[in-house]
Design goal:
single chain, about 700 residues, Alpha-Beta Plaits, 5 domains, 7-stranded mixed beta sheet, 3-stranded antiparallel beta sheet, flat
């Protein structure tokens, strides 16, 4: 008969990150321990609150079946010599708890090897559970563990109680001098009394009746509904905040909502500043009205419904103090123009070898005009925004709220009555800040965003600080991905090789005098190509991505690669495409070392004027000239779907017939040369679209 197994570790309040980390580990830890002892079971659920970490394992079988296990050892040549077992064979037997009498030589798919059969005895599962729970408790890892009293075993926080049940039966074990039983505790304030958990199956319900929602999904649902309802009751809509959703979930056992208010006068502060004070500093949620305006209220999740009015007043006092400080900082900053702060950037070191932030700003401004052309942006606005984009780093507000850099710059630029495009570019040039963040949406913001990141990439590559393995202390992979995402979102055509060369050209000075700029350019462009391949491979098959990107040689044009990959992906189901890829691969391989200096136009002219004798040659000649004309026109219009279709549908049959009926490497050198030129035109025409020979369909 199968029973449910429960382990609850009760402890002092754990931080949210500790709870989340432990709950992520528990299922695999338990499953590994059960598997090690051959105990079969059903689903495993990790449950937890700040005061308890729990795991429920369903359908744990009572009996462990006996099992015969076949073991293979070293080959016969190493296991036996002169009819006797070698030390290697004896070691194998000892390692597996066997006598040498149990050893034999047997045949398998690799040859003759040492073999033994071992009987794994069965037994009662409950006899193993104490060891399992003890091992799980010891293996739980935390960001920072602590020791208390004279106990040597570390844990996230001091353990107060343990519940261990197999169905209704207590699993007796102890951990950090706490003995397991069936005694647990409800909500610290609303139901603090100890109670007995009758069985593992009743655990979740027993806690729910004592104001503890131990199931995180259930707690999240209740919390979300309460927050949304509170915002609606006050005439607003809850502002979604994924960070807060997870953060406050780990702070409560039963979520109660308290709504507080602050003075309307604080709404003159930037919305981002108010919301930062709410979420990152106070763990409060914000709400907006139907027109999207921030409401002068905050919503907080608390762990008790006792005296909510007192809780509200206390939170309002803290919020008022925080906003008063924020208003002081922003008012002081607004009293000074953004441009007047530039001189102070000279005293802020960007990097010892790359100069100050003032130096970086000047480089970004110089690169900004080139980047503006990529997006058809206002070059003057981009240059002006570049000179101001880092000035808020020396503001009082960013000093207190560093996560607001860019947003504060925009506010101060607005205060200086600068044009809208400059203000928005200052705020947006930090976008995307992370993988889930949106890119800069304005043209000027996008231009400044990639100028800033390309300067960063060029600088650190120039001084040899490239990412290696898992190490990327300067966030260069993130910077590269930001450049690529921005270009792809705006469908911008660009030669990144050219922009990288320009960015490297801005890095001057004695400390960079010995830099091989051409080699650095190649390495950085290669790095960007690698990042692009990874990014596109999340949408398309890797062979499609590589076939599309190969047309660019050593350069990198992200949107061009995306368009080509989209076309190949869309037509992947065309049955002709695979055969076309195979034929084109053959044509490419047979001609790759000949006619190296012949231009495409010269090949077209030669092939069109030449007289071929065989019908198969004449058929391919007619088709390839027509396909070349259509493909050239389609590529010029960026119609890659049309170009791929023309090649797949037009070239496949005559090219396949040509290879079946015509011997290319004829002894007659004139015939051989003519046929190679014909196939070279096939290869160069298909290469206008992609490298068909890199598609997996081309492999036999």
């Amino acid at each position: 008969m199968a029973r449910t197994l429960l382990l609850e570790i009760g402890c002092e309040e754990l931080p949210t990150s500790f709870v989340n980390g432990a709950l992520a580990q528990l299922p695999s830890l338990v499953q590994n321990e059960l598997a090690l002892r051959r105990i079969t079971h059903g689903a495993v659920r990790a449950l937890g609150t700040p005061r308890r970490l729990s795991v429920l394992i369903e359908a744990v079988e009572e009996t462990i079946a006996s099992k015969s296990e076949e073991l293979w050892g070293p080959p016969e040549s190493a296991a036996k010599k002169d009819g006797k077992w070698t030390p290697a064979a004896e070691g194998f037997a000892k390692k597996n708890g066997l006598s040498v009498d149990a050893l034999e030589i047997a045949e398998n798919e690799k040859g003759r090897y040492l073999r033994a059969t071992r009987l794994l005895e069965g037994g009662a599962a409950k006899d193993q559970l104490a060891d399992i729970f003890g091992a799980v408790c010891k293996k739980l890892a935390f960001e920072k563990s602590m020791r208390w009293a004279d106990i040597e075993t570390p844990f996230g926080r001091p353990v107060q109680w343990l519940v261990a049940l197999y169905g209704e039966e207590v699993v007796e074990f102890d951990f950090v001098r706490v003995k397991a039983g069936r005694t647990s505790y409800g909500h610290r304030f609303l139901a603090p009394e100890a109670f007995e958990v009758a069985s593992a199956d009743e655990y979740v319900g027993a806690l729910r009746s004592r104001k503890v929602l131990v199931d995180q999904d259930e707690r999240r649902t209740v919390q979300r509904e309460a927050l949304v309802a509170a915002a609606k009751a006050h005439g607003g809509a809850l502002v979604d905040n994924d960070f807060l959703d997870g953060e406050v979930l780990g702070l409560v056992e039963w979520p109660f909502v308290v709504v507080g208010r602050f003075e309307d006068a604080f709404l003159t502060l930037p919305d981002e500043l108010i919301e930062t004070v709410m979420s990152f500093h106070q763990r409060y949620f914000a709400a907006r009205d139907a027109d999207g305006r921030l409401l002068p209220l905050f919503i907080t999740t608390v762990n008790t419904a006792l005296d909510p009015d007192r809780i509200r007043k206390g939170n309002e006092r803290v919020m008022r103090a925080r906003l008063t400080d924020a208003k002081f900082f922003i008012d002081k900053d607004r009293a000074e123009t953004l441009a007047s702060r530039f001189a102070r950037l000279e005293g802020v070191v960007y990097h010892q070898k790359l100069g100050s932030y003032a130096d970086k700003v000047l480089r970004v401004a110089a690169l900004g005009a080139d980047c503006a052309a990529v997006f058809a942006a206002d070059a003057a606005a981009v240059t002006d925004a570049a000179r101001l984009c880092k000035c808020d780093l020396v503001s009082l507000t960013v000093g207190e709220f560093p996560e607001l850099q860019g947003f504060v710059g925009r506010d101060l630029a607005r205060n200086d009555k600068l044009q809208v495009s400059i203000c928005e570019a200052i705020a947006q040039h930090y976008l995307p800040r992370g993988a889930e963040d949106s890119v800069a949406l304005s043209k000027e913001g996008a231009a400044l965003a990639i100028a800033d990141r390309l300067d960063t990439l060029a600088g650190f590559f120039a001084i040899g600080q490239r990412p290696s393995g898992g190490g990327d202390p300067f966030g260069l992979r993130r910077a590269a991905l930001g450049v690529l995402r921005t270009l792809l979102h705006h469908e911008a055509r660009v030669s990144l090789s050219s922009l990288v060369a320009t960015a490297l050209g801005q890095h001057k000075g004695e400390k960079l005098a010995a830099v091989d700029r051409e080699q650095t350019r190649k390495e950085l462009v290669s790095f960007l190509r690698e990042r692009l391949e990874v990014a596109l491979a999340q949408q398309f098959a890797i062979d499609v991505v590589r076939a599309a990107m190969a047309t660019q040689g050593d350069d990198c044009d992200p949107y061009d690669a995306l368009q080509r990959a989209e076309a190949l992906h869309k037509l992947r189901g065309n049955p002709q495409l695979g055969l076309a890829a195979t034929c084109i691969e053959r044509a490419t391989n047979i001609t790759k070392d000949v006619l190296g200096t012949e231009t495409s136009s010269a090949l077209v002219r030669w092939v069109s004027e030449h007289s071929f004798a065989l019908p198969e040659e004449q058929a391919l000649q007619t088709v390839v000239l027509d396909v070349e004309s259509q493909v050239t026109g389609a590529v010029a219009k960026r119609d890659f779907v049309g170009a791929v279709s023309v090649i797949a549908d037009g070239l496949t049959a005559p090219l396949d017939t040509f290879f079946a009926q015509v011997f290319v490497m004829d002894e007659d050198l004139a015939k051989r040369d003519a046929r190679l030129r014909l196939l070279k035109l096939v290869a160069t025409t298909s290469a206008l679209v992609c490298r068909f020979d890199l598609l997996s369909g081309s492999k036999k």
